[in-house]
Amino acid sequence: MKDRKKPLSAIEIAKIENEATEWVEEGVQTTTDKRLVYLRAIFYHAFEKTKKINLGDIPYFQIRGKAADNVRQGKFSEADFSNILAELPKYLHPLVKFLHLTGMRSGQAQAITWEMIDDDNVLRMPGFLTKNGQPYSSALTNRKGEPYEATAFMVNMKTRPHGEPVFDTTKRRMANGLPQTKTRDV
Questions:
Q1: Do 47 and 95 have their domain in common?
Q2: Structure confidence by residue, pLDDT tens digits, 106-150
Q3: Which of 4, 17, 87, 166 is 20 to 30 A from 78, alpha carbon to alpha carbon?
Q4: CA 87, CA 48: separation in Å to the nearest integer?
């Protein structure tokens, strides 16, 4: 009795198929396809390894395999970006231009220190600062060795102070020249 395969009931199968259909219709297709692949793998694992279900009990999930439909959109036009820069304090311009060029996360960019930039003007980002934990390198110049507008101040820096952040955001929390206090600081 213990090793007996108990097939899924018609109600269970209908529930799974109904929820999967709802998932497909309401979700972002790329994410849904990925989840359905995982769900299919779970069912096949249950069939092959545990023998607790029959092959016929595995519901069919149509995986459309279309191109990604959740690709980020809406990058600023150059005119929009110029207008945004005009509204920001000057000390934030280098950081914001760098973020615009690279698409890097702001916290990651703010953690860049001068020793992460080598003599060949390549940024060596350590894995502990990246979202996926993998280190990577990024050139701060084009193939001709010319800096991009957003990286020119880094490339042209004659002295790179050890341990100092590349982007000065210390004024970020300043108002009228005075540090902002938070309730927990008082």
A1: no
A2: 999 999 999 999 989 999 999 999 888 899 999 999 989 999 999
A3: 166
A4: 61
